[in-house]
Amino acid sequence: MAQLIAKRYAKALFDIALENHRIDEFEHQVHMVYQILDSEKEFMKILQHPQILMDEKIKMLEEIFSSKVSNELMGLLVLMIQKNRQEYILEILTTFLEEVKNYKGIVTATVVSAVPLTTEQINKITQKLISSLNKQIQIETQVDPSIIGGLKIRVGDRILDASIEGKLHSLKSQLYDLQLV
Question: What subcellular compartments does it reside in (predicted)?
Fold first, then answer.
């Protein structure tokens, strides 16, 4: 249900941005609003609190965002409060940003390594992914010491596991299969 709600509102905002040729502007504003709301957990609790009046919530949103975002985005935020769907705001904003990435042909690749990667290593991985996928790549890095070494790369629903942990797991499975024969 939450995904359906987020998709509908995000798609409506995306359609408005596309129709008005303001994709980049909306993307920047949505990203800014998302960062603020995601980092201010207490503010989100206030927006979701049932004993705070709707008008007060709207007034707070307008004081914070009205001078920083378009009327369309402000209208969406106000509508979320009016419809009592404020708990979906972050998901709607995330879904909108995903719509923009799809529109621009940008794919997010998550690279997991045992130690932090250098900028040079990230650039090499990015170039290899660009050449193999023929798409723009946005890299997100994560550090997970449990993989011991190597990399895990996730692009969409595809995963390349070149980690030592993955190889050990594969070897363990092969040895287990040998014992059964």
Answer: Cell membrane; Membrane
